[in-house]
Amino acid sequence: MGVKRMDDTSPAATQPEIIKAVAVTAVMMQLILSVLLKQFPDVSHRIEIGMLYNLAKFSAPAFIFAILYDVAQLRDVKYGHYVWHKAKEIIGPYLFWTTVYILTVNAGGYKQAGDVVQAFLLGTAAPHLWYTVMMFQYHLLIPLVTALALLMIRNRKKAAVAWVVSIIVYAILILLYDRYVLLDLLHPDLVYTDRIFAMYGLFALLGMGTSIYKEACLVWLDKMKWALLPIGVLLFIWVNRELFAYGFEDMNLLKSSYLKPSMALFNMALILLLYAGATGLIRMNVRFLLAFRWIAKYAFRAYLASYFALNLTVWMMGSYVKEMPLGISIVFLLICTAILAFTMVYYIEKLCKAVMRLLRARNHQGHQPAPTHGNRRP
């Protein structure tokens, strides 16, 4: 890929891999709760769904944290090779699943060619595809990311200034988003500004800083993790009060946005607690760490497939979805969606590899020189 890492040694699973495994579960949980909100109209059920949705609303920031944690370790990046590799790894599956959603979930829903183009460019073919559009921008900006990482290493004073400026700019961005997008219905098109990489810059910086100053961060977390728990609880109460303030009859989970001050602070606390928990698991060297590595390997592709897997599961269950108690429905749908999503992407990968081997074999045979028979006489 044309890159080097500062440290290629790793345990059975790293903190970013564990966080990615938890984050993809949170994505599936959000999708499931959005579906169940339509099936359970009671206020008590809606309160439970809203609280669980807010609790799971850390997935995109956690993914960005984990990705930039790893990217901060890259050195000697060859831009063309890196972007081409990431395009195959990210854009290829994204285009495939966007096409699947256009032809299945949204079949007949597009009236103009421009709507289809928008679906591919903005990730509107399914409620979770927008994240890919935003996340890939960080890979396109790899020179800027690695330059910032080197600044953090070589000059901590300048890095601190850059951090302060970035945090101020980020605070302004999400305050503007909260005011002119979430609260102002006169500017609905501004909702697509959540696809801009800078809207998640705080979590990118947090991931990079935690990666570069790993030992210092771990010492700080060992001292502060128990203080983060009550802070997280208070922030969780705050985000729930904001969501429930809109009422329960027409509860809109879109109002529980990543891009508002309360959720940004809550997600920061939750990600740091996840990082501390992941570090604890690594220190204990628990047996199932390898499972986290496997899940993290397929996390992005399973994330793309999860909405299709959920719709398929709900279709197969029929009316049983709303006949079961809410808690059982959530657990059942989560297990089925996860199994189906990971199974699909695992076998799709195997199929793609088999096809590529077949094509390479045929290509090799096609380039072999024709056999010669010498100058034999009749």
Largest sheet: 2 strands, antiparallel
Class from secondary-structure proportions: mainly alpha
Separation of the first and last Cα atoms:
55 Å
How many strand units? 2
Indicate the low-confidence ranges by residue numbers. none
Give the mean pLDDT.
Answer: 88
Helix and strand run = EHHHEHHHHHHHHHHH
Output the strand order for the largest sheet. 1-2
Radius of gyration: 23 Å
Shape: globular
Helix residue percentage: over 70%
Strand content: under 5%
- Separate helix tally: 14
Question: Could you name the key traits of this structure?
Answer:
globular; 74% helix; 378 residues
Question: How would you characterize this protein structure?
Answer:
By secondary structure, this protein is an all-alpha fold. The protein is built from 14 helices and two strands. The protein has a two-stranded antiparallel sheet. The mean pLDDT is 88.
List the helices and strands and how they pair.
Elements lengths: L3 E2 L9 H25 L3 H13 L3 H13 L2 E2 L3 H25 L9 H10 L7 H11 L1 H13 L1 H27 L18 H12 L1 H31 L16 H24 L4 H29 L2 H4 L2 H41 L12
Antiparallel strand pairs: 1-2
Helix pairs in contact: 1-2, 1-3, 1-11, 1-12, 1-14, 2-10, 3-9, 4-6, 4-12, 7-8, 9-10, 10-11, 12-14
